[in-house]
Amino acid sequence: MKPIGPVLEAGRSTSPLVMDTQCPFCSVQCKMRITGEFDGKRMNYTVEGQPNAASEGRLCVKGMNAYQHALSSERILHPMRRLPDGTFERITWKEAYQEIARRFYEIQRGFGSDAVGVYGGGSLTNESAYLLGKFARVALRTKYIDYNGRFCMSAAASAGNKALGMDRGLTNPLSDIPLAKCIILAGTNIAECQPTLMPYFTRAKEQGAFIIAIDPRETATTQMADLHLQVKPGMDAALANGLLKVILDEGLTDPAFVEGRTRGFTELAAHLEAMDLGVIAGMTGVPAELIRRAASAYGRASTGMVFTARGVEQQTDGYMAVRNFLNLVLVTGKIGRPGCGYGAVTGQGNGQGGREHGQKADQLPGYRLIENAADRAYVAGVWGIDPSELPGKGVSAYEMMEKVHDREIRALFLMGSNPIVSNPNAVFVEEGLKKLDFLVVADMLMSETAKMADILLPASAYLENEGTLTNLEGRVLLREAAREVPGEVQHDWQILCGVASVLGRGRYFGFRSAEEIFDELRHASRGGAADYYGITYDRLRREGGVYWPCPSPDEANSGRLFEETFAHGDGLAELLPVDSRFPVETACSEYPLYLTTGRVLSHYLTGVQTRRSPSLAAREIETFAELHPRTARRFKIGEGALIVLETRRGTMTARTRLHTGIREDTVFVPMHWGDGQNVNRLTHPALDPVCRMPGFKVCAVRVEPLVTARADDL
Ligand SMILES: Nc1nc2c(c(=O)[nH]1)N[C@H]1C(S)=C(S)[C@@H](COP(=O)(O)OP(=O)(O)OC[C@H]3O[C@@H](n4cnc5c(=O)[nH]c(N)nc54)[C@H](O)[C@@H]3O)O[C@H]1N2
Ligand SMILES: Nc1nc2c(c(=O)[nH]1)N[C@H]1C(S)=C(S)[C@@H](COP(=O)(O)OP(=O)(O)OC[C@H]3O[C@@H](n4cnc5c(=O)[nH]c(N)nc54)[C@H](O)[C@@H]3O)O[C@H]1N2
Ligand code: SF4
Ligand SMILES: [Mo]
Fold it and tell me: What cofactor(s) does the depicted protein rely on (predicted)?
């Protein structure tokens, strides 16, 4: 193990410090080497990408600077207790554990087991995510557990499960992308959010691919496209209906595939028959001619791929919108062969693995279901408990926040998320968290939510924490620890074992290493949809990465799913008619514009990590509101002016960036800042009825200059 990090020991290290690791940020999981050298005054770092199948050795600017927050002097280094004046005092681990045990015990004795909730995240390793699910069900015996991935992957995951019988980010390996002759990028900004994947698309273009981007605004991704459909926020399901209608009308379906591999076509065809392309064009803001061009390009191409990300998915009809893009893939038979497939572009580093092993309210490891008797019996067997001891299913992340507000949940154990910035309707969420009797937060940095913790536990960062992560292709990767933990920091899994022990459930949590947990996970996932049984640390070291499903240690799959059959019992994929709906909140005279939200290249999620990196923070020091120059004029707003954005939920201020590439009826604000710059103070809390995803990507907003006097000068 390498010695502890340079910043913390600056001045003492003389030989170069070499750390081989994986970027902690997005779902590509680029491998990298960080070398620190002491020049007599300070440490200087160089960061190089390392060869691996997904990123092919590339790194983006976030990866290049990811050492900065992990080595920052702002790391939390010991357990702390919050005092009544809001400051924190240092305590020992023993004191922290004892207080947690005492308060959880009192609250559960007074109000029942479910009065304590658990909330996790997609940055956790598979081992920690698995253990967090077990911790909730076995140590705390609460049904209330969910995680931030609900805001990220739930629409695509539920659509993949229902349509294809399985949800694994991409149905084919990244190396298939250059073989596609037409690519649809729907609500995905790969150039800023998974930048190291861009060369796959440029290669496809060089080989003649036609690229279609669907996004209300111009981005670095849409600039690469041959055709940009500038859809109105929230109208993707309707737009996909338009694409499908043209494909059916022009006879561009694959009848043999539809007949042999799918069910439900007759109903879908009847549903589309009744639709009018002109009406769809009106609803979506995309001219009928462009819808025709896009459908025809995709329908006529010999191979093709469709990618969706949060633009399509973070909608109150996100599940249905993804189903409709899957309809498109299926009726044209573009799946299960080289250059063909569907990809939900996973977001967080372990967004994929984090949703397979039991952090979700209704799930058990291996993508098993907590409401299914056979699944319960199997996992209870692995855990050595009686199935009747397992709680039932809980509620989704935002609904947990509602229960916090209602005081049904009175204590929360939070690991790897910053919910007061990332939940919709953040003002309400913050009010709720203030009502908690007891909040425990495990984090490595002081997030907006961590500031509210009664007990704060110092967790290790990616540089220190060994474990597996599953990238967007479904490829499981081993991230080795690259240095020892600083201060009194512990790994997430050690914290969970520690708390379980003081709760009197230590016998189920006697793990001494991440690998031991992975071995139990292998057994718990065995036979489930996400079967990791055949994957071992040894194998991951030897092979570099292994795709799931992997039922046997001697087996490897090519990464391409559904070549012969889909994962449903009858082997068929399911088509489903999808309605063209308007969003829950539409623009009106009082709130005349649409607000949509998303990301910029140099920051990550709620910014807790990237705002602490001087190099990344310097690129974007504050939030902004992107709007069209004509819209700005309409509201008497100038470039770089401070404006107030207001919705029915709350207000925020931001500086404007005028850009002709955005729709005139839309404002875009990134999500990476907290407090008064938190865009989730504005977002709508309505949830998708199937997957419980909030509609982060559309609500009605009004904008006005912060200082009216200046605007009058315009
Ligand atoms: N730089 C950076 N990279 C990241 C992250 C980050 O925070 N920063 N986060 C990671 C995570 S967790 C995730 S989930 C992914 C997210 O990756 P993406 O989903 O690609 O990112 P977003 O910016 O949220 O949204 C993508 C695009 O959707 C567009 N959009 C908005 N509304 C709509 C709509 O109604 N319809 C359509 N079709 N498009 C719409 C936005 O303009 C935006 O360009 O990125 C991962 N990578
Ligand atoms: N308006 C709007 N809101 C959104 C979105 C949007 O597009 N628009 N996107 C949504 C999406 S896709 C996502 S994924 C969520 C993300 O929402 P969050 O989960 O709240 O975002 P993060 O900033 O990643 O917060 C992670 C916290 O965990 C800490 N952390 C990181 N790694 C570890 C670890 O290994 N262990 C522990 N214990 N802590 C760790 C970090 O320091 C940070 O404080 O936000 C959602 N919210
Ligand atoms: S942020 Fe994503 S693309 Fe960039 S280096 Fe990290 S893992 Fe790679
Ligand atoms: Mo995400």
Answer: Mo-bis(molybdopterin guanine dinucleotide)
Q: Please say whether the dihedral angle defined by the alpha carbons of residues 381, 168, 159 and 697, taken in this order, is positive or negative.
A: positive
What is the rounded average pLDDT of the residues 303-310?
98
Task: Say which CATH number the domain at 236 has.
Answer: 3.40.228.10
334 lines ligand 2 (CB under 6 A): no
Predicted confidence at residue 710, as pLDDT, reads 47
| Atom of ligand 1 at shortest range from CA of 309 | 19
How many whole angstroms separate alpha carbon 59 and alpha carbon 63? 6
Give residue 413's Cα distance to chain centre: 20
348 Cα nearest atom in ligand 2: 14
The bound ligand whose nearest atom lies closest to the alpha carbon of 61 is 3
- 558 pLDDT tier (thresholds 50, 70, 90): confident
Give the type of residue at 285.
G
Domain CATH for 605: 2.40.40.20
Average pLDDT over residues 201-207: 98
Q: Which atom of ligand 3 is nearest to the CA of 196?
A: 3
Q: What type of residue sits at position 229?
A: L
Q: Is the CB of 485 under 6 A from ligand 3?
A: no
Place of tokens 């070499």: 18
Q: How far is the CA of 316 from the centre of ligand 2 (A)?
A: 20
Q: Is the CB of 312 under 6 A from ligand 1?
A: yes
> Is the CB of 605 within 6 Å of ligand 2?
yes
* 61 Cα nearest atom in ligand 3: 4
| Residue nearest ligand 1's atom 44 by CA | 189
Looking at the fold, whether 165 and 244 belong to one and the same domain comes out as yes
pLDDT digits (tens, 9 = 90+) for 428-467: 999 999 999 999 999 999 999 999 999 999 999 999 999 9
Question: How remote is the CA of residue 281 from the centroid of ligand 1, in Å?
Answer: 24
Q: Which helix (H) or strand (E) holds 538?
A: helix 537-543
Q: Choose which residue among 306, 469, 599 to substitute to test ligand 1 binding: the one with the highest number of ligand atoms within 8 A of its C-beta.
A: 599
Decide if 120 is inside a domain: yes
Phi and psi dihedrals of 261, rounded to 5? -125, -5
Give the per-residue pLDDT at 708: 65
Confidence at 556, pLDDT banded by 50, 70, 90: confident
The token pair that represents 466 in the structure block? 């060994």
User: Are 390 and 531 contained in the same domain?
Assistant: yes
Q: In the chain, how many domains are there?
A: 3
Give one DSSP letter per residue of 264-297, joined into a string: -HHHHHHHHHT--HHHHHHHHT--HHHHHHHHHH
- CA-to-CA dists, residue 388 to 66, 376, 385, 578, angstroms: 44, 9, 8, 39
- Gap from CA of 461 to ligand 2 centroid (Å): 14
Residue 538 belongs to what domain range? 80-149+350-547
Determine whether the shortest distance from the Cβ of 191 to ligand 3 is under 6 A: no
CB 442 within 8 A of CB 470: no
- CA-to-CA distance for 346 and 348, rounded, in angstroms? 7
The CA distance from 537 to 540, in Å, is 5
Q: What is the pLDDT of residue 15?
A: 82
Whether residue 693 lies inside any domain: the answer is yes
55 lines ligand 3 (CB under 6 A): yes
